[in-house]
Automatic annotation (TrEMBL):
It comes from the Bacteria. It comes from Shewanella xiamenensis. Gene3D superfamilies: TorD-like. This is Molecular chaperone TorD family protein. InterPro entries: DMSO/NO3_reduct_chaperone (IPR020945), TorD-like_sf (IPR036411), TorD/DmsD_chaperones (IPR050289). Pfam families: Nitrate_red_del (PF02613). Keywords: Chaperone.
Amino acid sequence: MKRNNLATLNELKAISNIFHSVLMIYPEAELLNQFKEQNLAKDWPRLTNSKRESQALDELSRFLTQWSDNNDALIKLKLDYGTVFYGPNTPKATPWGSTYLSPSQLLNDSSTIELKHFYAKHGINVKAESNEPIDHIGLIMAVINFLLGKMIENPSNDDYRLVLTELLETHFLPWGNRCLQLAYENSESDYYKGFSNLGLEFFRYLIKTFNLKVKVRNIYR
């Protein structure tokens, strides 16, 4: 992409921030009300104009249209998030990279250590309120947001673009697609189905925009 295409970078930064909010924590009424008031599904940037993107926006629109800040509905959505990403039994779409990249599907395995070293090398400090492994998909969305912000602040400096490229090609996209595919297949709500498919289209757009060559890695889930 052109270095000075700041409008595109700002769009991608805003999207990554939304995905951080959606994927990092259990849903809260305040965020859902904000999405509804902002008419998020209508104003979502059309990145790929694909059938899947249109379907995802229809799903999200359907959910937000019927959302009425009802406590029972919120509990149901929280249960959907918890079941898909955390359990109580085996999670349907675990949010941690090492559970996809490790043959034993363990937390904090070698791929997590590789990501930790990558962050340390580039001075990236990842903080989470809870004691989450740093390869949580929501945390990585926050790092993507941070790097896009640095690219916007320093449009003539390619360093941050190169760091973002390595993060996406090596540490995230090899398993990120599988995570959101599983989330879509196992979610019972149009909210998470819609965001899962929008995430997949977001990844597809990143690959095209930054001309990424995603590393082929064995996936164990």
